[in-house]
Amino acid sequence: MASVLPLYCTGLSIDSATDVDYFEVPMISGVTYYVNITFNHTSGDIDAGWDDASGGYISSSGSTGNIESMSSFASTNQTTYIDVYGYSGATNVYAIEITTDLPGGGQSFESIDVVANNATNSSIEVTGITSGTNYSITATPSQSCLLYTSDAA
């Protein structure tokens, strides 16, 4: 998946006392990540937490203002989760912004997909590459055959 950050979404909502919105953030070692959640506090208090994939605490924010802010430095590559919820069952609409300290506030991931167009032709799609960076692709063609035998009586 290429260019997952920066992320900015508006018009999101916590609709009930049990509603929790989750955002998956794949973190890259050596990068600092920032989260800002904005809303009108007088319409309902929204809080947020940030956990690793095992549920371990990374950060949280529970202010009484119109913004919840968190940041975290990634010391390892890991998948993390931000949870947004209403304090004491509050409901409200909000916006979320997730950025990094990388140029432009984002991050990219390189990926390659091979698609079989037909029995003799395939195409390769590469995404998330950076201009001026050297990449190499090694391809090993292979062919597989499925043989089916039927016992006709």
N- to C-terminal separation? 52 Å
Alpha-beta classification? mainly beta
According to DSSP, the number of beta strands is 10
Give Rg in angstroms: 22 Å
Order of helices and strands: EEEEEEEEEE
Instruction: Based on Cα principal axes, name the global outline.
Output: elongated
Q: Can you tell me the residue ranges where pLDDT is under 50 for at least 5 consecutive residues?
A: none
> Portion of residues in helices?
under 10%
Explain what you see.
- The structure is a single chain.
- The chain has 153 residues and is mainly β.
- It is 0% helix and 47% strand.
- It is built from no helices and 10 strands.
- Strands 1-8-3-6 form a 4-stranded antiparallel beta sheet, with no helix packed on it.
- The relative contact order is 0.27.
Question: Would you summarize the structure shown here?
Answer:
Helices cover 0% and strands 47% of the residues.
Descriptors:
4-stranded antiparallel β-sheet; mainly beta; 153 residues; elongated; single chain; 10 strands
Element layout with pairings:
Layout: E1 7-14, E2 20-27, E3 32-38, E4 46-52, E5 57-61, E6 67-73, E7 78-86, E8 92-100, E9 111-116, E10 122-127
Antiparallel strand pairs: 1-8, 2-7, 3-6, 3-8, 4-5, 4-7, 9-10
